[in-house]
Amino acid sequence: MRFRLTPRETSFYDMFAASADNIVTGSKLLMELLGADSSARAEIAERMRAAEHAGDDATHAIFHQLNSSFITPFDREDIYNLASSLDDIMDFMEEAVDLVVLYQVEELPKGVEQQIEVLARAAELTAEAMPNLRTMENLTEYWIEVNRLENQADQIHRKLLAQLFNGKYDAMEVLKLKQIVDVLEEAADAFEHVANTVETIAVKES
C-alpha cells in the first residue's frame, strides 16, 4: 500500500457500499420476477423503479462528493468510472423488468433464470467487495470470479439467442424476448466493468 501524508475523503467507501447493496436489492427483484404471474409483475416493476431511483441518488451523491473534495481516496477518473458502472447495472436490471411488463410477456424463455442467477451472484460478490476498497485487500478473487461469471453469462446469452431463432417463436415475440435477454447480458457486462475498474484501482494503489 502506498504511504500518504495527506488525509483522504473516506465517505466514498460508504457510498460505494450503499450503491452495491442497492444492486443486490435489484437482483432480488429480478429473481422475484421469475416466479411471479403477470398480475404481480407490475408491482415488482414499481419496486424496481424505486430501487433504480435510489441508485441514481447514490450515484449523484458520489459525483457531488467528488466535485467538492480536494483529496480523494483514489484517482478521480476511477471514482467516476466505478460510480457510473454501478449505476449502469441498476439501469439495465430496471430496464429488463420494465420491458417484461410493457411487452406483456407471458412466459420467459428457458435460460433466462440462469442469466438472472448469474446476475444475483455477481451482485452479492460486488456488495462484498466494495467495503474492501478501504484496505485494497481480498479483492483479487472478486474480479476473477466476476470475470468468470461474465463469461458464463455470454454462453447463456448465446444459447438463448439460438433458442429464440429456432422457429418456436413468431417474429414479433422474438423481437421482444431478444431485447430482454440482450439487456440482461448488458447488466452482466456492466458487472465486469465494475470488476475491471476495481482491479485498475487496486493495481494503482499497490
What is this structure's SSE topology?
Blueprint: H1 11-34, H2 38-68, H3 76-102, H4 112-129, H5 140-164, H6 171-205
Helix pairs in contact: 1-2, 1-3, 1-4, 2-3, 3-6, 4-5, 4-6, 5-6
Structure report:
The chain has 206 residues and is mainly α. It is built from six helices and no strands.
Structure in a nutshell:
The protein has 206 residues and is an all-alpha fold.
- Work out the helicity level: over 70%
Q: Could you describe the largest sheet, including whether it forms a barrel?
A: none
Total number of strands = 0
Quote the beta fraction.
under 5%
Order of helices and strands: HHHHHH
The count of helical stretches stands at 6
Distance between the termini: 5 Å
Return Rg in Å: 18 Å
Task: Considering the chains and any ligands shown, give keywords for the structure.
single chain, 206 residues, mainly alpha, 6 helices, 0% strand, disordered N terminus
